[in-house]
Amino acid sequence: MFSDGLSLSSAILIALFLVLLVFAFIVTRPDGSYDVPGRGYKEYRLDGYSSWLRNRIAGSKSWNKIRACLADTDVCPKLNQQQYMTVDQFFAAHLSPLQARCCKPPTICGYTFVNPTLWTNPTNPIGDPDCNLWSNDQTQLCYNCNSCRAGLLGNLRSEWRKANIILIVAVVVLICVYVIGCSALKNAETEDLFRRYKQGWVR
């Protein structure tokens, strides 16, 4: 009975891990990133991510708290500490999703680079709704932009993908342990039955 219960518990645990793994893959499969010509970084669209992520993470209620936290971090200020002397150096930089979408205006707006978090004179202010939300106020920047929400989801997607690898390894290990355990249990039961037979306990 104990061995049966242990096998059942192991099977349930494996099933739960598999459900979690499938869910994580479904949720993180859509990728809102896209390449920008002449840039070393990607930019991100909010509608490119799953509705589950958008509703849970980038919803207005959640975002107000997240935005305040972002403003208190050094995600954007540290860009100014990396000494991008020219616009070409900045455009060639490999920015994180958060930096690419929260710390600078969308490329399509055509803003002129002054420094990583200071941009002026947009040539295409109607190119994206976020163009008018950009602010050179260092406590605001593009934290109110949908593109910033997309950048956060880009970061989360990347971290979830890394976690998925750990889940896959855990599931494989659990399945191996389960199979080995079941085989050992069956072998033990077979040997016990054979021993009883030899001793005349089974007729």
TrEMBL record:
It is found in: Membrane. GO terms for biological process: auxin-activated signaling pathway. The chain crosses the membrane at residues 6-27, 165-186. Keywords: Membrane, Transmembrane, Transmembrane helix. It comes from Hibiscus trionum. This is Tetraspanin2. GO terms for cellular component: membrane. Pfam families: Tetraspanin (PF00335). Belongs to the tetraspanin (TM4SF) family. It is a multi-pass membrane protein.
